[in-house]
Specification:
Elements: E1 15-16, E2 25-26, E3 30-34, H1 38-43, E4 56-60, E5 65-67, E6 71-74, E7 81-83, E8 85-91, E9 107-115, E10 117-118, H2 119-128, H3 133-136, E11 142-144, E12 148-149, E13 159-164, E14 167-173, H4 181-188, E15 199-201, E16 209-210, E17 216-221, E18 225-234
Parallel strand pairs: 3-15, 5-11, 6-18
Antiparallel strand pairs: 1-2, 3-4, 7-10, 7-16, 8-9, 8-15, 9-11, 9-12, 13-14, 13-17, 17-18
The chain binds manganese (II) ion.
């Protein structure tokens, strides 16, 4: 059927503003890399040995996407909602089984991201061998700044920081990624046909911690930009 009709109005296409463009970037899937900085893997009690391990991933619904500057309610079902500041890669070209050497061709641009997490539920699920969805696939938990177009560019370095209500929480550099941008795109494209609009949250460094209603989160990645989030009251 070329012009389908629907029972009710379909949800809007998730999208993000693009720096210097009127058009918005339509978002397809949200991929997240787990434990991709050594100091964070250690603070989570699960150190990583790159020689014997591969990256691992989880996903969130694209409907969890929120733009930088938003105020989000403190979510239900948790007493330990936490911040994870991350570099986000926006994919701009399709790719399947891409080599690390060719991975740059899939890059459209970059953004700052927050992978907000119900840590208590994530860890309970992890320790019981259950899925992470209740801990990670939280409504309004995937916060992203405007996409900065850098087609074909691979970022290797850049200071990353996050402050919560003026207090320093996370300080690192994307040079400390265990699996770098090229390696992540190559690896992930072995499992998925990557598509324009897929976003890859590349993992968070050490210093993750709780937020409270009334907090203001301010993140920054050198060469990419800034991100802000306000935590509102619980519903
Ligand atoms: Mn994360």
């Amino acid at each position: 059927m070329s012009n389908p009709t629907y029972l009710w109005t379909p949800p809007p296409v998730p999208s993000l503003p693009v720096q210097g463009r009127v058009e918005r970037l339509p978002v397809n899937r949200l991929f997240f890399v787990g434990r991709n900085y050594h100091a964070h893997a250690i603070e989570m009690g699960r150190p990583v040995d790159k020689a014997s391990e591969r990256p691992f991933y989880f996903t969130k619904s694209a409907s969890t996407l929120v733009e930088s500057g938003a105020t989000v309610a403190y979510p239900p079902g948790t007493a330990d909602y936490q911040h994870e500041m991350e570099l986000v890669v926006a994919i701009g070209a399709p790719g399947f089984r891409v080599s690390a050497g060719d991975a740059h061709a899939l890059v459209y641009g970059y953004a700052c991201g927050l992978d907000m997490t119900r840590r208590d539920l994530q860890l309970a699920a992890r320790d019981k061998g259950r899925p992470w969805d209740l801990g990670k696939d939280v409504e309004q938990s995937s916060v992203v700044s405007a996409i900065v177009p850098m087609p074909g560019r691979v970022l290797d370095t850049g200071a990353l920081s996050l402050d919560v209500s003026g207090q320093p929480r996370q300080r690192s550099d994307i040079a400390r990624l265990i699996w770098n941008i090229r390696e992540l795109i190559a690896d992930l494209s072995g499992f998925y046909h990557l598509q324009p609009g897929d976003l890859i949250f590349t993992g968070t460094p050490e210093g993750v911690g709780p937020v409270r209603p009334g907090d203001r989160l301010d993140g920054r990645i050198e060469g990419v930009g800034d991100i802000t989030l306000h935590i509102g009251n619980a519903e």
